[in-house]
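User: Sorry, what's this?
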Amino acid sequence: MAADRTVLGIVGSVSDPSKTATAVDRALEAAAERDGVTAETLRLSDHDLVTADGRTLDAYEGDTAAALEAVVEADAYVVGTPVYRGSLSGALKNLFDMVPRGMWQADVAPFEDAAVGLVATGATNHHYLAIDQELRPIFGFFGAHTVGGSVYATDDHFESVASDDGSDTDGTGGYAITDDAVDERLADLGRATVELDAALADADALTDLGPQF
């Protein structure tokens, strides 16, 4: 494994507290157990992002610039979204619309050839295919390498808990995972993302393809 790798958790929920954040944090916790791995989190609920309008990367300011810098600086990713109307959150799609592909927006392409683990949450099982039908194709567009397995969690897999200060709005409390199988699958996803990142770091042809267009 290449030394000093950063796995960034991107939480596409604007809610606080958030089941999606809880799930992504569990995967990151397992990822960070590996030597040389640092886990960081980008919660869209903490950032006031502008609406994507096609500007170049260096034209963004404030929260938007900070969020994009976190994406650009990371090596691998665990990306989570709540599912609304069968698709990813609008906030997450807006962020993706600002991430460059190494073309005219900027000369960097952070998702290209990167390892990405995918997580989604929803009220019921009805939307579990949103990961493969909506989220995974976006990373195909970016030329990323997604972990083959993913995690979909429903409301039944969580319970509400209080934060240490008695509030559920500071990001440290809110929800806990109650399903052991989901908890372990999230941990496996975090570890698998790190393993995929290591494999890509040692690859030749696998990282030569990239997006064709």
User: Anything to note?
Assistant: The chain is about 30% helix and 20% strand. The chain has a mean pLDDT of 93. Residues 9 and 41 are 5 Å apart (CA to CA).
